[in-house]
Specification:
With about 55 residues, the protein is α+β, with helices and mostly antiparallel strands. The protein has 1 helix and 3 strands. The radius of gyration is 12 Å and the shape is elongated.
Length: about 55
């Protein structure tokens, strides 16, 4: 599991897409905002033993 902390949704999803180009990834479809805290968090699950399928 990887938890991404980013300033905004766009950045968090861009990082997730970058990870998905390298490893098999279960993609997240939303971010989480903590009340009173800046930024967003996104969790995605990577299988480091399995490379992503070629595009």
């Amino acid at each position: 599991m990887v938890e991404v902390a980013a300033a905004d949704d766009q950045t968090a999803f861009a990082i997730q897409e970058l990870l998905a180009t390298r490893w098999a990834t279960a993609l997240a479809d939303r971010t989480v905002r903590e009340p009173g805290e800046p930024g967003v968090r996104l969790r995605c699950y990577l299988d480091l033993r399995q490379a992503a399928a070629p595009a």
